[in-house]
Design a protein that fits this description.
Shape: flat
Structural class: mainly alpha
CATH topology: MetI-like fold
Distance between the termini: 23 Å
Number of helices: 12
CATH architecture: Orthogonal Bundle
Strand content: under 5%
Mean pLDDT: 85
Number of strands: 0
Helix content: over 70%
């Protein structure tokens, strides 16, 4: 068995791969070795996997309804064997609301990443490859967005669009793409004059094909790292909008809105705001650890561990 594993390892680490598939699998194997060698990164990966499992099985894991409570008999109960995280001012089980709130957290971070990352990648690569006035115009627009704090700009957009989780996601996405554009532009400037780009140009490839097929893939690894590191900031921004009443609206069990409703009881019934706050802390820590691990694993300058 060990001989078979050693043979597979040698095949993956071959310096002269026989096919593109072997080369890709070899790169993926080396990346995984670098990532798995980082214990904190593995802790972050475990936290994110746990978040995905909890969100997928929320209906099974939650012991009570996240929106229906017992106002007469279960109002502001402390943590106990019956209610592990206690209950809120409406008699709702906080553990069940935290579990269901993981779905809204994933909803926000996934949609923001899906919307903001492609916009930033497209703007940055086009600006870096085209240069001239196109680069100047796109980067000045990017500078305008970067001149405002993200939360303040998101507040302005949500105030214009109206409160709601969908508008909050759109506002966060609109304010999140400029850093990705900067990273993509910097990567593009380093490769646009390289030999293989010149060869593709001599073969008659159009600028759009060069950007889409040859430059964008070079920027994806850096973009993935930055998006992963930004997940914690996205969660905090969404929680801030929910705390101010501009994000998810009652009775949705969104963590920021739960903290906002529990701030009145922070001195005497600390668990009402403490449980969702701790959930935000753990998930943000998980994304940060995962992002740090991906940054080290995807760095081409890192040696094989």
């Amino acid at each position: 068995m060990s001989t078979v594993a050693e043979t597979r390892r040698e095949w993956l680490l071959s310096e002269r791969p026989a096919s593109r598939m072997q080369a890709r699998l070899g790169r993926a194997y080396v990346t995984w070795r670098r990532f798995s060698a980082n214990r904190l990164a593995m802790v972050g990966l475990f936290i994110i996997i746990a978040l995905l499992v909890v969100a997928a099985l929320a209906d099974v894991l939650a012991p009570y309804s996240p929106t229906i409570g017992d106002l007469k008999n279960a109002r502001l109960l402390p943590p106990s064997a019956q209610h592990w995280f206690g209950t809120d001012d409406l008699g709702r089980d906080i553990l069940s609301r935290v579990i269901h709130g993981s779905r809204w957290t994933l909803f926000v971070v996934v949609l923001v990443a899906v919307i903001a990352a492609p916009i930033g990648l497209l703007v940055g690569t086009v600006a870096g490859y085209a240069g001239g006035w196109i680069d100047a115009v796109l980067m000045r627009v990017t500078d305008i967005y970067l001149a405002f704090p993200k939360l303040v700009l998101a507040l302005a957009f949500v105030a214009a669009l109206g409160p709601g989780i969908e508008n909050a996601v759109l506002a966060i996405a609109v304010t999140s793409w400029p850093p990705y554009a900067r990273i993509a532009r910097a990567e593009t400037l380093t490769v646009r004059n390289s030999d293989y780009i010149k060869a593709v140009q001599l073969m008659g490839a159009s600028p759009m094909r060069i950007v889409l097929r040859h430059i964008m893939p070079m920027c994806i690894s850096s973009l993935i790292v930055r998006v992963t590191l930004d997940m914690a900031g996205i969660i905090l921004t969404a929680a801030g909008l929910g705390f101010l009443g501009l994000g998810a609206q009652p009775p949705l069990p969104e963590w920021g809105a739960m903290i906002a409703s529990g701030r009145r009881f922070i001195l005497d019934q600390w668990w009402v705001a403490g449980a969702p706050g701790f959930a935000i802390l753990i998930v943000s820590l998980g994304f940060n650890l995962l992002g740090d691990g991906l940054r080290d694993a995807l760095d081409p300058r890192s040696g094989d561990q």
